[in-house]
Amino acid sequence: MLIELVPTLPAVAMIANTVGRGQLAAAFAEQNPDVPVTLFHVDAFHAEQSRVTYFPAPGKLEIVLASDPPVGEVGLAAMLVELHGEAELVRDLLQSFHDRLAIGGQLIAATDHPKDQWLHEQLLELFPKVTRLPQKRGVVYRATKQAPLKKHRSFVAQFPCRDGDHLLQLQTRPGVFNHRSVDAGARALLSAVEVRAGESVLDIGCGCGVVGLVICKRLPTATVLAIDSHSRAIECTQASAERNELPQLTARLDPSHKSVPDASFDVVAMNPPYFSNFRIAELFLQTATRALKPGGRLYSVTKTPEWYLERLKEGWTNVEAVPVKNYIVVRAERSK
User: Fold this and answer.
1) Which one, 21, 108, 154, 195, has least CB within 10 Å?
2) Which fold has domain 157-334?
3) Which Pfam families match (predicted)?
4) Is the whole-model pTM more than 0.90?
5) So what CATH class is 2-144?
């Protein structure tokens, strides 16, 4: 919807998010080749998709991967919002985009919900006047920044997590799995995972880092490498490790897992997302297969163990699916 507005937009520095690969930012950069355009991502996998799609990048398009939009004034900000997107992340980014706008700068926003009211209400909390432009596939909004915000809301959450006699303090932000609480699947995984003193653990798709953090708290001599594709997940995991004085945990941004060394870990723990038709679970499992030492142990929490049991028929031994409350933890040992 916003791409259709590109010819009508002022030729000023722009920042944009995306729910795809950044078509709006690319179209604006092509239309205005001398104007700086920032395409902002919080997830490294999506950022890499944009870099591949727009190589070489048109005009002065810069694809930025970061936990927050880069600092610096722009005259135009573009925000795309999906109907089923994460509400708190949208609020967070809207506030950040408002901060980056110069006085008199414009924000354009679009949602794929034709009957939207929620996004309109969020914009009215930031701008004194918001123009609503209904479309067939959703709604477009336009607003102009009149003044800086008088009050900023913090979206960072800090909360306790108890594991038996251990108490940790966790930090999360919008966009991180799982924001403001510990996921029940992670707790199921932690109830099943067995780690011995001095062992090395790979936490794939660490999210807020709770699995690796708890393992380190339980066994101070264990070491954990926690990896994720989300910049905020890594930021929060590292912050929680420092807050809880757990230097044996290292958090690393690695969407393709290329930095993970082969045959180097005693244990792999993973909690893959359920969407994507097992594409992400397959990536996780391939990494676990090469990262584990012979005899190393895999623990994966799921609600669909059949896929794992089929995939683990070759190269693995002692494969079993263990019910843990409303989940199944699949356990297996790498063949020696």
Assistant:
1) 154
2) Rossmann fold (3.40.50)
3) MTS (PF05175)
4) yes
5) alpha beta
Q: Name the H helices within 54-161.
A: 87-100, 118-124
Q: How many CB atoms lie within 10 A of CB 151?
A: 4
Residue for token digits 């029940």?
A: 184
Is the separation of the CB atoms in 34 and 13 below 8 Å?
no
At residue 215, the 3 state secondary structure works out as: helix
157-334 shares the fold of 2-144: yes
* Cα 92 from Cα 79, distance rounded (Å): 12
Residue type, 130: V
CB 209 within 8 A of CB 169: no
For the chain, give every domain's residue range: 2-144, 157-334
pLDDT along the chain (336 residues), means of 10: 92 95 95 98 95 96 97 97 92 98 98 96 98 95 97 97 97 96 96 97 98 98 98 98 98 97 98 88 97 98 96 97 96 96
Whole-angstrom distance, CA of residue 204 vs CA of residue 189: 12
Task: Say if CB 206 and CB 41 are below 8 A apart.
Answer: no
